[in-house]
Write a structure and sequence with these properties.
10 helices, 8 strands, alpha+beta, three-stranded antiparallel sheet, three-stranded mixed sheet, 289 residues
Length: 289
């Protein structure tokens, strides 16, 4: 026997723990459990104002996540702040802990053709880890935004005509979007945080509209999430789940969450762009001095 033959014996004794069919069945059940968790979370958040607010808090930290994945993060780790998969953490110098709590989300896989000719997307379960479960030297930084910069960013994120006025007639609002002439009016002399409350509401109104009381509720929720994300005090917000949401199925609840999800993603996409742009300008000015 060669001096290395003992190594081969170790591999000869190893047996496959499951076959291909068992693995496929395991993954099917795993995905089914994830979809069931999404439905349970959707039904749960509309039964409690506090639960719904927690969903909004989660969404404010994960604005690019789908409704389903936001519900999954909230259901498994509501205080999560930054998630990545194992490889991404390692590549950035982090070491996910051995006894960590991972979060299951869904990621797009291959596409398929439905019977009606439309194209659907298959999803796979993906494991991600929150930064609280990772050993890493560079800690997550909490962004503190200058109020003047933040107002400038929000106004640049506006997609309508912008008109600065001394006051807005017939209202105590500091900002008002008029859909008829597609103009956002902003009153001079407005102080924080009230100007942020009103401007973010009007930005959300541009995305969602305000034809019904349910639309108004969604606009208020998007405003809350934007203020929460960018460090503006949200203690004065009243998030009260409308009765009609409580009567819906899990699928219908997710459909009602979609406009808020899309509005949040769109507005944050623009605000983050301008934050980066203004930060770059400031760096260039500093270097030029």
């Amino acid at each position: 026997m060669g001096e290395l033959d003992q190594v081969y014996e170790t591999f000869n004794r190893r047996k496959r723990e499951y076959n291909k069919e068992e693995y496929i069945e395991f993954k099917r059940k795993e995905k089914q459990a994830v979809y069931e968790l999404i439905d349970k979370a959707a039904e749960k958040i509309v039964q409690s104002n506090q639960e719904f607010k927690q969903y909004l808090d989660t969404k404010s930290r994960f604005e690019q996540y789908s409704v389903g994945n936001t519900l999954l993060v909230m259901a498994q780790m509501p205080n999560a702040t930054m998630v990545r998969d194992y490889e991404s953490w390692v590549n950035s110098g982090g070491f996910p802990r051995k006894n960590r709590r991972d979060i299951k989300i869904l990621e797009p896989a291959d596409s398929y053709m439905r019977e009606d000719g439309s194209v659907g997307t298959n999803y796979n379960v993906k494991y991600v880890t929150d930064i609280s479960q990772v050993s890493i030297k560079s800690k997550q930084r909490i962004a503190n935004y200058d109020k003047k910069l933040l107002l400038k960013v929000f106004l640049n994120s506006n997609q309508a005509n912008l008109q600065i006025v001394d006051s807005i007639p017939n209202t105590d609002k500091t900002a008002l979007y008029n859909r008829e002439n597609d103009t956002l009016y902003v009153a001079k002399g407005s102080d924080a945080p009230y100007i942020f409350y009103d401007v973010t509401r009007e930005l959300a109104k541009q995305e969602i509209g305000e034809e019904t009381p349910l639309d108004s509720f969604k606009v208020n929720c998007v405003s809350y999430m934007l203020c929460k994300k960018y460090g503006i005090d949200v203690s004065n917000y009243n998030i009260e789940v409308p009765f009609e949401l409580k009567e819906l199925s899990a699928k219908e609840i997710r459909e009602e969450l979609e406009p808020m999800n899309n509005a949040m993603e769109n507005i944050c996409g623009r605000t983050n762009y301008y934050i980066e742009m203004f930060a770059k300008q400031n760096r260039e000015q500093e270097q030029a001095r």
